[in-house]
Each structure stands twice: as structure tokens, then as C-alpha cells.
């Protein structure tokens, strides 16, 4: 820029000299001056061109260069690593804010909120008793393969939930209660257990979903189950209702499909997180982390409901996943269509 | 209390990678093969407007890595240096996802489970173990700050493009340079309207 100014000053100066001293300007001199002037003009034109080039080629301008870097532009580097040429990538920082502000609170709210709501409901409502009591006659409901798969999935899933919650909530809720060494051991143990339990869950989950899918298709009568809240509510307009249901009731079907969908999300994103070389970019990793967290929140909420239902709310329900048999009266009251079906086609099998 | 920062003058950086070598040398005990705490990136290499810049950890005042870490193993020293505890680190990689500058590194690139303990620039300030201990050398590398010296990368920069020190001090050095060059073009993000 300075040079450009100088050239511009020089030009009028030469012109002035020419005007003031015309006598001195011999032919030879005039030629020289003209040549000099032409040269000056060439330089000026060159600089003008440079300037317009700068405007036309934004990468040559500092402002745009750093603006592009801020937006994620990459350069050349000898450093190893997939993204080492990239100077700034703020996506992870934005993802972190989503995780801290939404995912982690949602996880906590699901755990505490759903549990509290169900406890309240249980205390007001009480469990669903068998209206005719136990018959003592046990009907085959699950095979031993079903039970093995169920408990593999359930135990791995619960371990994943506990360790996952420690990873998400530990530093906020637990770290302050223990010494630094205990904390280090706890968080390291949780992370390691979470990594190694994941594959067990994925395999057992996939087998359960495939094996049980035929039993979980929604039927017309399932609509009525939802309208009467499954017959579990013992007050108000829902009192005394016994909606129809097949092998699985509508609530169980909803749980099944939620588990199928979010189990898929959590499995895929879990694999992405545990094998970082599959998803080289930081964007993908953080998207995976957020989907993983939200899916976990939903599964945690549903699991709490599921465990409440199985252990406390439905009298005689847990039995069927422990021994594989359910009480005949339980089958008639809670799964009448299924009971009628197996009775009709002769597949009903009593415990001997 | 100071706020220690790095500043790289891109009009001076000549992409010699001397800072990278100095860093590896200074912290050799703590570094595994393939980890680099500092790197030099050249933008528009060989084109008009080429610029080189040396980057490591920026020692952010409100550090994303520190906020995201599930093990809560980061801490900020009185000098504003962001350090972490390798004993507590679980190698989850969250800090690497969150850091805008790609500073955190991991010894294991292909990992099921843990990627190993995270490593990043310590501003040559060691870690949460006794100063100059064998353990500090092995886990974190040099502790030049405790010796009253600046990080080796900046000390050894041949063109003094890479500056390290209190934010106030190094930014006034840079400001003086820009003034001396009397070229407004050297201020990032500012291209003046060129009048006649
Ligand atoms: C200790 C906790 C748990 C208990 C006590 C429990 C109990 C039960 C019981 C009793 C059944 C049989 C329901 C019936 O006979 O109709 C069942 C089914 C099932 N459980 Fe669990 N369970 C637990 C945890 C889990 C977990 C963690 C998962 C998933 C990750 C899970 C997924 C399932 C699924 C998908 C079914 C099939 C339900 C259906 O028919 O739709 N369970 N569970
Ligand atoms: S590692 Fe990244 S986020 Fe953390 S202080 Fe350094 S530059 Fe900032
Ligand atoms: S890799 Fe280590 S330092 Fe980084 S977030 Fe995970 S536990 Fe924290």
C-alpha cells in the first residue's frame, strides 16, 4: 500500500518537473521521461490488478482466511490423525452444551421422576390382585430359552443403565461423597464394565426381538386396552375393567417396540462410541453420544415401569419369567385371548 | 495471578516445525509414538495468502474438555493453565470430541474400550504429582513452569512467531509488532478499505 502511494506521488512530481523546465527537455530527455512514465504506469496498473485479484480471490484476504478457518477450513500439516489439518471445529462444543443442558437432566428426571410417579400410583392404587385367587394349576408360558435370553438381556441392560448413569451423573452426584482414589476406581470400573457388557446386551437384545416379534403385533383389541389403562386403575371410570389381551397385552407390546427401536439406536451408537475408528469425525461421535443418552433416558423410564409392573403391580406376574409357568387364573384374567387360543388348539401345557 | 496463553504470529511463522520438535523433546518421556501435542497447520499451502500457524492446547478459560469430562479429571492452575490427572482419566474420548482445537490425543488409535490415557499440551507445567518427580516426567513430561521458564516450543521458536506468556504481555508484544509493520492488513479479520 505504501509503495502504491509513493508511485502516485512520483507521477505528478515528474509532470511538474517537465512543466517547469521545458528548456531542459531535450528530445533525448523527453524520450527518457516518457519511458519512465510508461514504466510507472505499468507498475500502477500491476498494483491495481493485484488489488482486484485480492478482492476476487477471497483466500488471499486475511479476514476471509480466518473466517473460513473458524468455519472449519483445513490446511496442510505433517501431524498424524484424521482431522489434524483442521484448526477449529466447534461442533463438539455445541454438542457438549446439548449434553450438559438436556441429556444429563433428562436422564436424571427419568430415573427419579418415573420411579416417584409409580411409587405414588402404587400407594394410591394398590396392586392388581387376581380376582379369583391362585388356582394352583400352572400353565406353560415361556420356554427355558426365552427365560435365559430374557435374563441375559435384563441383567446386561440393568448393568448398562447403572454404569451409564455413573458415567453421566457420577461427577455431579457421587464424586463429592468419596475420596479421589475411590472415585477413580468407580468411574474406571463403570466405563470398563459398560464397554464389555454392551456386546452381551446387543446379542441378547437382537435374539429377543427377533424371537418375540411374532407375539408382539398390535391387534384391534389392543386399542381398548389403552382406553381402559389396562385394567390396572382401581378408581374413577377405569374401575373394575378387564380389557382383552393376547399373549402380550398392549402395554407389553408398547414396551417391546420401544425396546426394539431405542435398543437399536443405543446399540448402533454404542458401537460407534466404543470403536472410534469407525466414525472418524468428531461430529459423528457427538451425534452418537447425544442419541445414545436420549435413548438411554427413554429405556430407563420404560424399564422402571416394566419392573414395577412385573414385581409389584401385577400379582403373579413375576412367576412366569422365573419358572416359565403362570397361574391359570392369571392367564385367564390378564391374557384371556391367548388362554382361549392355547386351550382351543391344544397347545396348553400344565406343569406336571 | 497470570493468565498464560500461546499466540502465534502467522506473518512470522515459517512452518519449520521447530516448536513441534522442541515439544517432543521436552516431553519425550510422556509421549508415545504418534502423539503430538503441538502441530503446525499451513493454510493455502503454495497459494497466494499462504499462512502457517502453530497450535496446541489453548488453555481455554472456560474449557469445554474440563466441562465434559465424566471422570472430572481436569483442573485449572492459578496461572490459567488447563491440566488433567492421568490416573483418573478413563480414556472415553469425550474431551477430544468437545475440544474445538483437536488438542487431546490418545495413545491407542484403534481401540475397543479404552483408548488409553488422554495426553495433551501441559504448557510444560507437569501434572498433579510432586514437581520434578519421576512420575511427573513419565506421565506428563517437563515442568518448566516450576523452574520459572516458559514452554520450550515458544522459547525455541526461531522467528519468535510463537509467543508464550501472560495474555497481557504477549498481546502487547504482538500489538507493537503490528504497529511497527504499520500495516493494518496484519490484524486478523481486518482488511482496510484501500483509498487513494
Ligand atoms: C429385574 C428386572 C426385571 C424383571 C423383574 C422383569 C420381569 C419380566 C417378566 C415377569 C416378564 C414376563 C411378562 C409376561 O409374562 O408377560 C418380562 C418380559 C420382558 N422383559 Fe423383563 N424384567 C426385568 C428387566 C428387564 C429389562 C432390563 C429388559 C430390557 C432391557 C426387559 C425386557 C423384557 C421384554 C422385552 C419382555 C417381553 C415383554 C413382552 O411380552 O412384551 N426386562 N420381564
Ligand atoms: S484441550 Fe481443548 S478445550 Fe481443553 S483447554 Fe485445551 S484447547 Fe481448550
Ligand atoms: S478421555 Fe480422559 S480426560 Fe478426556 S474426557 Fe475422558 S476421562 Fe476425561
Automatic annotation (TrEMBL), chain B:
<dbReference type="InterPro" id="IPR017900">
    <property type="entry name" value="4Fe4S_Fe_S_CS"/>
</dbReference>
<dbReference type="InterPro" id="IPR050954">
    <property type="entry name" value="ET_IronSulfur_Cluster-Binding"/>
</dbReference>
<keyword id="KW-0479">Metal-binding</keyword>
<keyword id="KW-0411">Iron-sulfur</keyword>
<feature type="domain" description="4Fe-4S ferredoxin-type">
    <location>
        <begin position="4"/>
        <end position="34"/>
    </location>
</feature>
<feature type="domain" description="4Fe-4S ferredoxin-type">
    <location>
        <begin position="49"/>
        <end position="79"/>
    </location>
</feature>
<keyword id="KW-0408">Iron</keyword>
<dbReference type="Pfam" id="PF13247">
    <property type="entry name" value="Fer4_11"/>
</dbReference>
<feature type="domain" description="4Fe-4S ferredoxin-type">
    <location>
        <begin position="80"/>
        <end position="109"/>
    </location>
</feature>
<keyword id="KW-0004">4Fe-4S</keyword>
<dbReference type="InterPro" id="IPR017896">
    <property type="entry name" value="4Fe4S_Fe-S-bd"/>
</dbReference>
<protein>
    <submittedName>
        <fullName>Formate dehydrogenase FDH3 subunit beta</fullName>
    </submittedName>
</protein>
Amino acid at each position: 500500500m505504501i509503495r502504491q502511494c509513493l508511485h502516485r506521488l512520483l507521477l505528478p512530481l515528474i509532470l511538474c518537473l517537465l512543466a517547469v523546465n521545458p528548456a531542459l527537455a531535450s528530445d533525448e530527455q523527453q524520450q527518457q521521461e516518457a519511458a519512465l512514465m510508461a514504466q510507472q504506469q505499468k507498475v500502477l496498473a500491476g498494483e491495481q490488478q493485484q488489488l482486484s485479484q485480492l478482492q476476487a480471490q477471497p483466500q488471499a484476504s486475511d479476514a476471509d482466511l480466518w473466517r473460513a478457518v473458524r468455519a472449519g477450513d483445513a490446511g496442510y500439516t505433517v501431524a498424524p490423525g484424521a482431522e489434524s489439518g483442521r484448526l477449529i471445529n466447534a461442533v463438539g462444543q455445541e454438542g457438549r452444551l446439548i449434553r450438559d443442558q438436556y441429556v444429563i437432566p433428562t436422564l436424571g428426571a427419568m430415573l427419579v421422576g418415573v420411579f416417584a410417579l409409580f411409587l405414588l400410583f402404587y400407594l394410591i392404587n394398590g396392586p392388581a390382585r387376581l380376582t379369583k385367587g391362585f388356582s394352583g394349576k400352572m400353565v406353560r408360558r415361556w420356554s427355558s430359552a426365552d427365560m435365559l435370553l430374557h435374563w441375559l438381556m435384563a441383567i446386561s441392560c440393568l448393568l448398562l443403565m447403572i454404569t451409564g448413569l455413573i458415567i453421566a451423573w457420577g461427577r455431579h452426584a457421587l464424586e463429592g461423597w468419596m475420596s479421589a482414589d475411590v472415585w477413580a476406581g468407580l468411574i474406571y470400573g463403570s466405563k470398563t464394565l459398560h464397554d464389555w457388557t454392551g456386546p452381551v446386551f446387543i446379542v441378547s437384545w437382537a435374539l429377543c426381538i427377533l424371537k418375540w416379534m411374532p407375539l408382539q403385533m398390535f391387534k384391534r383389541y389392543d386399542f381398548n386396552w389403552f382406553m381402559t389403562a389396562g385394567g390396572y386403575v382401581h378408581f374413577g371410570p377405569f374401575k373394575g375393567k378387564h380389557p382383552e389381551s393376547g399373549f402380550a397385552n398392549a402395554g407389553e407390546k408398547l414396551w417391546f417396540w420401544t425396546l426394539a427401536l431405542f435398543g437399536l439406536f443405543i446399540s448402533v451408537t454404542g458401537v460407534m462410541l466404543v470403536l472410534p475408528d469407525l466414525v472418524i469425525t468428531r461430529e459423528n461421535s457427538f451425534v452418537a453420544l447425544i442419541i445414545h443418552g436420549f435413548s438411554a433416558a427413554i429405556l430407563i423410564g420404560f424399564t422402571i415401569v416394566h419392573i414395577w409392573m412385573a414385581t409389584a403391580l401385577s400379582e403373579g406376574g413375576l412367576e412366569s419369567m422365573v419358572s416359565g409357568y403362570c397361574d391359570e387364573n392369571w392367564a385367564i384374567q390378564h391374557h384371556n385371548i391367548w388362554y382361549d387360543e392355547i386351550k382351543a388348539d391344544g397347545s396348553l401345557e400344565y406343569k406336571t | 495471578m497470570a493468565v498464560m496463553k500461546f499466540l502465534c504470529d502467522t506473518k512470522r511463522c515459517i512452518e519449520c516445525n521447530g516448536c513441534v520438535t522442541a515439544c517432543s523433546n521436552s516431553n519425550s518421556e510422556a509421549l508415545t509414538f504418534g502423539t503430538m501435542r503441538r502441530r503446525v497447520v499451513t493454510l493455502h499451502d503454495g497459494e497466494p495468502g499462504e499462512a502457517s500457524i502453530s497450535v496446541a492446547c489453548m488453555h481455554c478459560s472456560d474449557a469445554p474438555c474440563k466441562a465434559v469430562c465424566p471422570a472430572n479429571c481436569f483442573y485449572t492452575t492459578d496461572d490459567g493453565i488447563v491440566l488433567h490427572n492421568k490416573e483418573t482419566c478413563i480414556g472415553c474420548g469425550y474431551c477430544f470430541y468437545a475440544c474445538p482445537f483437536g488438542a487431546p490425543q490418545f495413545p491407542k488409535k484403534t481401540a475397543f474400550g479404552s483408548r488409553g490415557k488422554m495426553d495433551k499440551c501441559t504448557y510444560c507445567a507437569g501434572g498433579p504429582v510432586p514437581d520434578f518427580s519421576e512420575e511427573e516426567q513419565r506421565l506428563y513430561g517437563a515442568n518448566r513452569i516450576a523452574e520459572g521458564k516458559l514452554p520450550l516450543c515458544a522459547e525455541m521458536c526461531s522467528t519468535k512467531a510463537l509467543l508464550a506468556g501472560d495474555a497481557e504481555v504477549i498481546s502487547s508484544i504482538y500489538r507493537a509488532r503490528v504497529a511497527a509493520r504499520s500495516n493494518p492488513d496484519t490484524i486478523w479479520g481486518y482488511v482496510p478499505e484501500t483509498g487513494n
